[in-house]
Amino acid sequence: MKNNCTLFLLLNIYSCFFFGIQAQELSLSLKAEKEIPEGVVDSLQLPASYKDFISLKNETDTLHLKLQRMGFIESELLQLKKENDSSYTAAFFLGRKYNNIKVYYSEKDFSKKELQHVASQIDSSYFILPFETIPTALRKLTAYRNAKGNAFARVRLTAFNNTGAGNLSATLLIENGKLRTVDSIVLKGYEKFPKSYLKYYAGVRKGKLFDQKKLLAQNENLNSLGFVSSIKPPEALFREDSTTVYFYLEKEENNLFDGILGFATDEESQKLTFNGYLNLELNNNLNYGEQLLINYKSDGEKQINFKTKLTLPYLFSSPFGLSGELMIFKRDSTFITTEQQLRSTYQLDTRSTLYVGYKGYESSNLLDEVIAGIPIEDFTSRFFIFGGNYKKPQNRKLFPVKTAIYLDMGIGSRKQKSESEDQIGFTSVISNIFNLNYRNSLFVQNSTSALFSDSYLINELFRFGGINSIRGFDENSIDASLFSVLNTEYRYQFNDGVYLHSIIDVGYFENQTISLKEKIYSFGLGLGLNTKAGIFRFNIANGNRQNTPFNLTNTKVHISISSKF
Q: In 3D, which of 398, 401, 316 has the Cα closest to residue 351?
């Protein structure tokens, strides 16, 4: 028993001694042959303490490199001295501090435009760098060489020379590796991914110069498609005579459904009527990148809006594609209009698409008798259309598109009875997100449409209003021969799944059939949630017209949810 107690006591003494030493922290101070400027000490960012001697010694060894990068290239560690049990002093010889370095280069290696990103003073044969910026400048210049296909190129300084007055000169040396091009492309995870999207949408092609930075940007382009996601960044396998690029992709379910449908019996006709809305979007179900849209909206009384669209991209693995669209709009018992579109598209580059096509309208007057002051007549219109769109994606799940531009122009004529009249139509939608930081952003969008004609009919005018144009107004409740709407949202993003935003919309429209010119505006708040069921959007906005007092009854609630399956 006595031996056990003695052993227990010895173990406790040893533990206290051992852990006491481990817990002791060490400090380090610096000295040199001259007083070290306070700014230099601050730049070294010395820790206040060290947990053991090994970490203190490692820090001391790196100080030499830090001092050299700051311009003390003659610096040298003279001694590391122990002052007492918890403090050490590192004695350095600093020498002269060099402020700038003049770097001689060849114009065939780098252009002045490239050098402007690393230096402010540039001559035809040299440029000047502050000493502290040398590592960053060399990394940027190396990246430029890599982007030109020299995946293994290295840029460094050689032939140093002291030019006096605290300055140095050196020569820029380029060590060019073998020029690399993309010889083969391998898809991992989603082997049936439509390869035309790699070539035309993302811009990944065989024979192109290898550029790792560009590959990462192209990978982000693929992420913005919606029906595919990247598992990890692309990788490259370099063999002696070839370069293989690997993309790691995963198929995403990107079919969207949003809708509420109801039905009732019309009191007058005793016919079954439908109301509500349905939005169905089928994407890439055949692994071709195709898209089918079906959209139906009805309030049961005033209007019915039906739209279907089929898009077939990259026909026969070419940059050309086709799309067809059918739209039917019926306003109570006033008129019904059918619109057909056929477009041939061409992928100009990874972000831009051009198209030409045909658009036709057929409209019928449903009124039993002509009403004075309401120009509604049967007509047909034929237009040759052309335009294009531009999209710049961003790596944000809730807001995948940073910039979008859509332009459409139509030239044609309208025929009614035995008369024909030339017309020109124009539509543009331009939007951009200004990212202030991760949580705060500003969304701005302008939508403008105009019909130029000598005379106008109500059933050929543009219709706008609602959640997709100016909020705070009923859907498609405003007729216009010309309108322009500015939508703005200040967004605050709590996390990747929740954001709150303001609503401030301003619009102007003209209706030539009744000689009306009016300004409208709305304001409110909105909420967005990325739920398991899909993206839920709730907007509440109050719409008002020019010279009309504020009325709370004009407040509209817009709710939408897009479910993926």
A: 401
